[in-house]
DNA sequence: TAGAATT
């Protein structure tokens, strides 16, 4: 059991934990990413982190079922927790999805896509909140300080600003050690730093949100579809859907391969010659349910002719996407985005 | 003094 001390208590370093914490813990290497020898089941299960807040309950209203090759579940507890899981059938698809989508920029976020580790209590609640950092200390210094408590095989993503930050460990025990060893210490002189476990959802806001949403007390898993599902299926370098995947899933028949389903058709102008469908998924997906995207190409060169179409299920989401993306600067081009005027249609 | 990594 770890006692989490308040900032005030942090003024008394002796209360921070057991005395005699001198010996430097030996870093324990851990393997978070399945290597070649790992069971196949693990290599089909991905975790997606740093999802934009918009990819949550609000934007997946019209979930019409996941595709046959994968499904994305965004974890949600009243509000999006910003991460989710994807299960692929084929390990190769999972591998390609990592290659194509890890580091993808969605709105203000850069998502991280990696193999999920087998679920275990030992890897949960391993995120620390650090405050009282000297102004000059950045992410690098913080990582250096905390690295003695564990090798983090995942990329450490502490966010340091205004003297506070987060640091994530691979294992709970490593985080506990770090709290014991560093809370109330003065690693850089000055005032002592506060190191404690980061709030878990619901802890911060008291009961306000939860009392409005009684059903939100438990974790809910939301199927987010088709927007990021499609992205996860399409964006790994292949143009359009896999015909095999389409045939295998009746729900998707007529959705891909240039056959727009019902919805709102959006005209996108001023795309670069190199633009492909994945660009459109990336641009529009975060705004809601996208059922189809198409880049119009020159027959001879196969280059984009400068425009394309996106079909979105919900009017409000489509309108928001247009309002947000019209005039958006993509590379050195300014996009023109509007409802398609000549053949505007509705479900 | 706050973002969101284990279903």
From TrEMBL:
<dbReference type="GO" id="GO:1990904">
    <property type="term" value="C:ribonucleoprotein complex"/>
</dbReference>
<feature type="domain" description="RRM">
    <location>
        <begin position="264"/>
        <end position="342"/>
    </location>
</feature>
<dbReference type="Pfam" id="PF00076">
    <property type="entry name" value="RRM_1"/>
</dbReference>
<dbReference type="GO" id="GO:0009967">
    <property type="term" value="P:positive regulation of signal transduction"/>
</dbReference>
<dbReference type="InterPro" id="IPR035979">
    <property type="entry name" value="RBD_domain_sf"/>
</dbReference>
<feature type="domain" description="RRM">
    <location>
        <begin position="44"/>
        <end position="118"/>
    </location>
</feature>
<keyword id="KW-0694">RNA-binding</keyword>
<dbReference type="GO" id="GO:0010629">
    <property type="term" value="P:negative regulation of gene expression"/>
</dbReference>
<feature type="domain" description="RRM">
    <location>
        <begin position="126"/>
        <end position="200"/>
    </location>
</feature>
<dbReference type="InterPro" id="IPR002343">
    <property type="entry name" value="Hud_Sxl_RNA"/>
</dbReference>
<protein>
    <recommendedName>
        <fullName>RRM domain-containing protein</fullName>
    </recommendedName>
</protein>
<dbReference type="GO" id="GO:0003729">
    <property type="term" value="F:mRNA binding"/>
</dbReference>
<keyword id="KW-0677">Repeat</keyword>
<dbReference type="InterPro" id="IPR000504">
    <property type="entry name" value="RRM_dom"/>
</dbReference>
<dbReference type="GO" id="GO:0005737">
    <property type="term" value="C:cytoplasm"/>
</dbReference>
<dbReference type="InterPro" id="IPR012677">
    <property type="entry name" value="Nucleotide-bd_a/b_plait_sf"/>
</dbReference>
């Amino acid at each position: 059991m770890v006692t989490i001390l308040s900032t005030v208590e942090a003024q008394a370093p002796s209360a921070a934990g057991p005395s005699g914490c001198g010996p430097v813990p030996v870093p324990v290497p851990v393997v978070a990413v399945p290597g070649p020898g790992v069971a196949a089941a693990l290599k089909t299960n991905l975790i997606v982190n740093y999802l934009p807040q918009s990819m949550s309950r609000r934007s997946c209203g019209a979930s019409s079922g996941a595709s046959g090759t994968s499904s994305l579940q965004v974890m949600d507890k009243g509000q999006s927790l910003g991460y989710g899981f994807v299960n692929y059938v084929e390990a190769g698809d999972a591998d390609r999805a990592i290659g194509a989508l890890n580091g993808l920029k969605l709105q203000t976020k850069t998502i991280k896509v990696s193999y999920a580790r087998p679920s275990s209590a030992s890897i949960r609640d391993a995120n620390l909140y650090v405050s009282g950092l000297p102004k000059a200390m950045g992410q690098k210094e913080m990582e250096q300080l905390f690295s003695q408590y564990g090798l983090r095989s995942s990329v450490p993503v502490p966010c340091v600003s205004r003297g506070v930050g987060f640091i994530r460990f691979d294992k709970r025990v490593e985080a506990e050690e770090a709290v014991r060893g560093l809370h109330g210490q003065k690693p850089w002189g000055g005032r002592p730093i506060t190191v404690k476990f980061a709030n878990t959802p619901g802890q911060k806001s008291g009961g306000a949100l939860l009392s409005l949403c009684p059903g939100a007390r438990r974790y809910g898993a939301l199927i987010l579809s088709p927007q990021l599902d499609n992205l996860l299926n399409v964006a790994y370098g292949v143009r359009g859907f896999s015909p095999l995947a389409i045939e295998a899933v009746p729900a998707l028949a007529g959705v891909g391969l240039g056959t727009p389903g019902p919805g709102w058709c959006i005209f996108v102008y001023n795309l670069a010659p190199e633009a492909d469908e994945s660009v459109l998924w990336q641009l529009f997906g975060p705004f809601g349910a996208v059922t189809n995207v198409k880049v119009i190409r020159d027959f001879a060169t196969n280059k984009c002719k400068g425009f394309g179409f996106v079909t979105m299920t919900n009017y409000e989401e489509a309108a928001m996407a247009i309002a947000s993306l019209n005039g958006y600067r993509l590379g050195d081009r300014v996009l023109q985005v509007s409802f398609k005027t000549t053949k505007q249609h509705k479900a």
